[in-house]
Design goal:
16 strands, 16-stranded antiparallel sheet
Length: about 475
């Protein structure tokens, strides 16, 4: 096996982190020892994951139901998730050729010189493959807890006794729980109920669907209530009196999961159990982008938001007055933005490489919208200057820098409008939503000045949707796929 470092990979280059960004980044540590362990754990995740076998206890099974926030890294997930992950990383052989197949984690730690603060040979004999940080309610408020899977308890005890004899920890069901608050650890050790059996937690994790390599969960209402004193002090000192009111009404829970398929990685964010959202009025769709050309560089679409904007305008006299000065009413906004609004970026047709850019309105009442657009562009108001930048084509209204470029966009959509049938689109946009974003990574990023080699990457997609049957439930997914 080659001993080349990960950073030498020509296939996979990430944006360079500036020295200023490095200076401003300060990791949060409970204790110095745990901070060092977490570094090793994160760096070794890929190698350990590939060798893991699945099954076994999870960190949430040793944390109490009083847990208000929780995050974990599972390097031993379900078999299917593990297979998908291995398939994904196999697409970057140069990146991972430095791994020692007999002991890849050890090889990576040493190659990256990350065992300087902690001797990895002393740690690898006892540390397991599941790791978590949590915030638990106790008599002292919300207390941070670190949870590490343990393979060898005797080796672990010896390690802590040797390197940090004053460290507070307790052992429970194959995990070591570490904190700076011994009382909190005593509470956890005797807790009658666990987070894993909490009804809300179980429901929220089930809503993610499938196995997750990384997971984060928080009960926002309980977290805010537990730290209300701290929040009140901060609000008072900062003269931000609205903080208490805003956070005091917080409700529901937040969930984040990261999982792999054979050719993609996706992060899914959920809100659950909160107040009913006005976004329930927006329709789900995948068709808003699917009729664009197959060579589309990027597209963004949001379902009709005209009604909500019109309501906001009607309730704000200042905004209403401003719009009236340019001969625009809330009724015009409502009809023009009643359907999908789609931003379109297509490949350049000119020598300087400038992409074609246009905005398309697809109102539900096209006749009324077209009439409103024509009136606004010819009534002598400020919008009259935009006449040359608006084009009506059937039921759609296009806006762009000039008539020539708008006509080119319309022509290309009609000639090559089958993006929805491409594998790149299907990998990026897997479900309908009120907000959709599609990006051709390999072609667009170089155009906007982002340097790197993106040859293996295909597309990026963002989908946001609302579960109308469950108040306060939303789902947003960001997926990156390979070719």
């Amino acid at each position: 096996m080659s001993d080349s470092t990960v950073g030498s990979n020509p296939e996979l280059e990430f944006p360079i982190i500036t020295e200023e960004a490095k200076r401003r980044f300060t990791p949060l540590k409970i204790v110095g020892l745990v901070g060092g362990l977490v570094v090793i754990v994160v760096v070794g995740a890929i190698a350990a994951f590939a060798l893991s076998s699945g099954g076994g206890a999870q960190p949430e099974s040793v944390l109490p139901s009083d847990t208000v926030a929780f995050a974990k890294l599972d390097l031993n997930p379900s078999v299917g998730q593990k297979v998908d992950f291995v398939r994904f990383i196999s697409r970057f052989p140069s990146t991972f050729k430095g791994f020692n197949s007999n002991d890849p984690l050890d090889s990576l730690i040493k190659t990256a010189n990350l065992d300087a603060s902690i001797n990895w040979s002393d740690v690898k004999s006892w540390i397991g493959d599941r790791y978590s940080v949590a915030a638990v309610e106790s008599s002292n408020g919300v207390v941070p807890i670190v949870v590490l899977a343990v393979k060898d308890e005797a080796a672990m005890k010896y390690y802590f006794a040797k390197h940090d004899p004053n460290l507070h920890y307790t052992l429970k069901s194959g995990f070591v729980l570490i904190s700076n608050d011994q009382a909190a650890l005593n509470l956890i050790a005797t807790a009658p109920k666990t987070l894993a059996n909490d009804a809300n937690y179980k429901s929220d994790i089930a809503a993610l669907g499938g196995g997750q390599v990384a997971l984060a969960w928080a009960d926002t209402k309980r977290l805010v209530q537990a730290e209300q004193g701290l929040i009140s002090d901060f609000a008072s000192e900062s003269t931000l009196s609205t903080i208490n009111k805003t956070l005091g009404s917080a409700s529901g829970r937040l969930v984040l999961g990261i999982h792999f398929t054979g050719n993609s990685v996706a992060a899914t964010f959920l809100t659950r159990g909160g107040s009913a959202s006005t976004l329930t009025t927006l329709a789900k769709s995948q068709a808003d982008l699917s009729d664009l050309p197959t060579d589309t560089l990027a597209g963004l679409s949001i379902a009709g938001i005209g009604e909500e904007i019109a309501k906001a305008i009607d309730q704000d006299s200042a905004t209403n007055g401003l719009l009236s000065n340019i001969s625009v009413s809330s009724a015009d906004i409502k009809v023009l933005l009643s359907g999908p609004i789609t931003a379109i970026i297509l490949p350049s047709t000119v020598k300087d490489g400038t992409p074609l850019i246009a905005l398309r309105l697809s109102p539900t009442d096209s006749a009324a919208a077209v009439a409103a657009a024509k009136r606004l562009a010819s009534d002598g108001g400020l919008l009259e200057s935009l006449t040359g930048q608006i084009k009506v084509d059937g039921t759609n209204i296009y806006l762009g820098p000039d008539q020539k470029s708008i006509s080119e966009v319309v022509t290309r959509i009609k000639a090559k409008g089958n993006l929805g049938e491409s594998a790149a689109f299907r990998d990026a946009i897997k479900s309908p939503g009120f907000f959709l974003t599609y990006v051709n990574i390999g072609k667009l990023l170089p155009l906007v000045g982002i340097k790197g080699s993106f040859g293996e990457f295909n597309s990026l997609g963002i989908v946001a949707s609302v579960d109308k049957s469950s108040p306060g439930a939303t789902k947003s997914t960001l997926a990156i796929s390979l070719k």
